[in-house]
Amino acid sequence: MGKYTFRGKAAVSVAAIAALALTGCANVGGGGGGEETSGGDNGGGQEGGVLTIAETNAFTGANPGYTKANLDINGKVATGTREGFMYVNPSQEIQRNEGFGTFEKTSDDPLTVEYTLNDPQWSDGNKIDKADVMLWWATSSGYYDDGDAEAKTGKDYFTIAGSTDILGHTDIPEFSEDGKSFTLKYDEPQADWEIAMDQDYLHPAHVVAEEAGMTEDELLTVLEDSPKGDPESPKENADLAKIGEAWDTAFNFTKTPENDKLLLSNGPYKIKDIVEGSSLTMVKNDQYNGEHQGKLDEITVRFIGDSTAQIQALRNGEVDIMAPVSVNKDTIDQVKEIDSVNVLQGQDLSYDHVDLNFGTETFKDKDVREAFLKTIPRQQIVDQLIKPVTDEASVLNSQMFVSSQGEPYEKATGSNEAQNLYGEVDIDGAKELLDGKTPTVRILYNNENPARVDSFQLIKESAEKAGFKVEDLGDPSWSEKLPDGDYEASLFGWVSPGVGTEVLSQIFKTGGGGNYNDYSNPDVDKLVDEARSNLDNESRVDQMVEIDKHTFEDAYGLPLFQNPGFFGVSEDVEGVEYQPNQDGAFWNLWEWSRK
Length: 595
Hints:
Layout: E1 5-6, E2 50-55, H1 72-81, E3 86-88, E4 94-96, E5 101-108, E6 111-117, H2 130-141, E7 174-175, E8 181-185, H3 205-211, H4 216-225, H5 238-249, E9 269-275, E10 279-284, E11 298-303, H6 307-315, E12 321-322, H7 329-336, E13 341-356, H8 366-375, H9 378-385, H10 407-413, H11 418-422, H12 427-434, E14 440-445, H13 450-465, E15 469-474, H14 478-481, E16 489-495, H15 502-508, H16 522-532, H17 537-553, E17 557-570, E18 573-574, E19 593-594
Parallel strand pairs: 2-11, 2-12, 14-15, 14-16
Antiparallel strand pairs: 1-16, 3-4, 5-6, 6-8, 7-8, 9-10, 10-11, 12-17, 13-16, 13-17, 18-19
Helix pairs in contact: 2-4, 3-4, 8-12, 10-17, 15-16, 16-17
């Protein structure tokens, strides 16, 4: 629940910003909740029935914790099929989920947290047990990893989208005799201890074991007996490698898998079938024993990439909810004109941005990075794409915070010099820095998203005036190619989970799971570690402001704008609330019902 996710087709998640999570500032406080402009009441819905929701992106896998599956729709589906110890409400507050289990801090020195499971179970009737918890902890702690990226030695066993910076400060969990309780002890304070056990990394150990060619007991033995990883003296562990490979790859599918065990759920709904590129259907999980029993019998998610087609489907009654990633004034106006449809609007905890790839020959040169950033027509992009939706739209000038976060954002923009450095297009300044060079810049983005296509064209036209040769790497499968790094620049959006400081480690720390552009600054790494162990909100914001300043000094890339958001909801649907974070409308899908 702490990482940022990216949206495949349209923009979005600063501060979960990837899968970073922004609530106040990637965890500095509460984040801006949405404002409902119209909508029905939330009570009195009937049990049973079916509902269809239109989403922009197509489902690509049931493991949103895996770096190549860290896509908003995968996480949204997981919201209905995965539960953990907590979730986040629309006010960006942590809500305990005692139907799954309880947890409490039992000591400050050392930080110690005790968890107790309330007999949650998988949809095949298997109880979530010690093996599940050990695998859950192992994936997100990095305990066994001994990889050294710089030396190219050793191995990191689980390819996670986030970071290991929270649970990486714990030792192997201590379990009660019955295995229902476990305790984590930290070697130093952690600001995000409440969200350490992120349900995105929870998967059925007996299924992962089977995919790895072993029994669940054998998997548990491997995890209990394997030593802590040591990058200075890496040791090959073939059994761990099998488990990691299964966790990384087994849950990646775009259509109903032959092995239905890969669809196991511990949430109120379970996946029934997936039609590749078209739809995904969830039905009630009859083995669910938590507190969030779903009201609807069936929920179908239709993948409709074009907002115009979503509107038509809503108008025709083919879908009951639409929540497009890309929003423009015409879209909202058309939906408001549909009889029997309510519109819920707000500001998403998401933003579009351009990142420069430090791992390429072109952008190893800081002068070339600065030159390219000077050509990006941010104000023109905002004027054309966002201002027609909201008059108050402005260029975003922080990598850490979005405009709606108020004081932290103002503090960051007062320090980072973003406006002075890149507030206006400066072609002459770019030419001077290039000094006659004509570098090629290949830009990766989603070319099925009209807003991204427009942004790319405006950037290309401007950059070529300074001498850059801009190549179009637009691709519907851009999100799968993002981690590979075969491009000079990327144009996409981060969407925040609303809580936590995961964004710092995930995106800006050397080797972070979402650090796709190979950014590395030792001063930033040090500040990240300090901020994540800092329990004081005010001074943590100051540390994040300092990190923000470094990113602009390093010509990391540029934020473009915070995204406006809205849901169109049929008036005979109840229980839908505007949620600005990465879960979107799905955050409480168990409360959806029909009048």
